[in-house]
Automatic annotation (TrEMBL):
Keywords: Cadmium, DNA-binding, Metal-binding, Transcription, Transcription regulation. PANTHER family: HTH-TYPE TRANSCRIPTIONAL REGULATOR CMTR, TRANSCRIPTIONAL REGULATOR-RELATED. It comes from the Bacteria. This is HTH-type transcriptional regulator CmtR. Residues 3-100 form the HTH arsR-type domain. Metal-responsive transcriptional repressor for the cmt operon. Binding of cadmium or lead causes the repressor to dissociate from the DNA. One of its GO terms (molecular function) is cadmium ion sensor activity.
Length: 111
């Protein structure tokens, strides 16, 4: 089966979203329920500025959306299937080798 550029682009965007531990934590939190940035920053114990930068990345990747609610904004996954994809991906990775890490990822350029 021939892979088209849009398939590669979609996987690259998802990979970029998952490439940072804070973005992973944000996605897992939003998988549970949509939330407001202030609440999410408190829950993840990170600064609002740092959270804002990561949310901007996730929005640019098309993974999360900002939903206006009056003067506030609520963040949620762009599609409910992304929550299922996160669960499936996490389960598959853990099933393959739960004790593996990627300690020299930067050196090898793999992660």
């Amino acid at each position: 089966m021939l892979t088209v550029a849009s398939d590669i682009d979609a996987l690259t965007r998802f990979g970029r979203a998952l490439a940072d531990p804070i973005r992973c934590r944000i996605l897992l939190a939003l998988r549970e329920a949509p939330t407001h940035p202030a609440e999410l920053a408190d829950r993840l114990e990170i600064s609002r500025t740092r959270l804002s930068n990561h949310l901007a990345c996730l929005r640019d990747c098309g993974i999360v959306v900002a939903v206006p609610e009056g003067r506030r904004v609520r963040y949620e996954l762009a599609d409910t299937r992304l929550g299922h994809a996160l669960d499936d991906l996490r389960g598959a990775i853990l099933a393959v080798e739960a004790d593996r890490t990627c300690p020299d990822a930067e050196e090898k350029g793999c992660c």
